[in-house]
Amino acid sequence: MRALVVARGEAGPVRFADVDEPVPSAGEALVEVRHIALNFGELNYLHLWPAGAVHGHDAAGVVVRAAADGSGPPVGARVALGMAPHAWAERVAVSPACLGTVPDGVELAEAAALGIAGVTALRVLRERSLLARNVLVTGASGGVGHFAVQLAALAGARVTALVGSPGRAAGLRELGADAVLTDPAELAGTEDRFDLVLHTVGGPLVAQAWSRLAEGGTIRLVGYSSGEATTFPPKALFGFGEPRTIATYGDRTSTSGELTDLLGLVAAGRLTVPVGLRGDGREVGDAVRALFARTVRGKVVLDVASGRGGERYEHVVCTPSPRPGRWLAGVDREGPMDVLAEVLRVVGCAGRARRRGGGRRDLGPGAGRRAWCGAARGLPGHGVAPHRGPAAAAGAGRGRRTRAARHRARNRRRRERDDGLLRPRGGGPGHR
Predict the structure, then answer these.
(1) pLDDT in tens, 371-413
(2) Same domain, 132 and 241
(3) CB within 10 Å: which end of the chain, N or C, has fewer?
(4) How much is the CA Rg of the chain, to the nearest whole Å?
(5) What CATH number does the domain containing 6 carry?
(6) Element of type H or E holding 94
(7) pTM strictly above 0.85
């Protein structure tokens, strides 16, 4: 399979390579990855990983093999991966401790962007009560910053967002910021004293934030994107009253609980996922350069090509119709097999697709409803009885069929039943 591995050449920090398929342990699920999300830290600090290792920690996809010990989500579940090692590959073996189940209505691309950025913001902000507190978020236009502004506002804080230029301030007030500063020099002029500073920039800005910290306040250093040193003026670290603190952040424990909470907020419409750049996985070089140039507001999400080697299908997808005992047929002549699997998952049907060139493939969750999927002929959008297969796709809903047409349909149905494509004639979804 293909994966992004650590590289230390002029071409960039990562490169595509063919790697061995993952072999899950008893406590790991096998996930087919659909989207990956890039983070500045994992690309900037490559010395922490060996050359050639499959890189990345944040992704989203579908479980294709559940953990053998029964833990974690079942086959077919859509999942987000957060702080999961070796995530930037077509398939990954991952502990359920790093998985969150993606609710209906949440796109997998959005779920992929939560990972490190969302969990970091949530964990830092959960350390103390924020109700009616003053919170400063530096680097607020980045991935962590976008999440932090929203989550702090949801917790009842008065949020000040600090960005490096006016062009990076767009949308922050809509996310919940009470004030937006577009120049670090503006920090010295504010009258606010901050109870918590979530710092993603580092450098001289740390000392400036320290000067505006309230008694008992804390600066949490979650990033150092500036790459500059911090120098405190004489006596700056001396003071009376309740102690002020500076603390680092490096929590690498299980993320499943936080991912579940974040996904719930997204599904409820209370949290917006900041995808600032969406592209194809083959464009990773351009995406990395944009990330390092700090031209992306929010997260970078890349789509991963199907891991089935370009396998194609011809199919009819049947979904329940408002009319009792009938299904609606939607025809898609040709496309990637994983797209068909996703359609079946969304409509809650199991199904079978005919491979291009022969053979069949079982798809879908297999629970309850059943869809007929075979070589498609006819037009989409007509009512089709579940036992009739594609025969009515071109003519159902257009009046009574002739006796010859009914005989042809009956004979075709018998042949298809013999092939194992159809269940015995009977009712609609749920028929056994």
Answers:
(1) 333 322 222 332 323 333 333 334 444 444 566 777 777 777 6
(2) yes
(3) C
(4) 27
(5) 3.90.180.10
(6) strand 91-94
(7) no
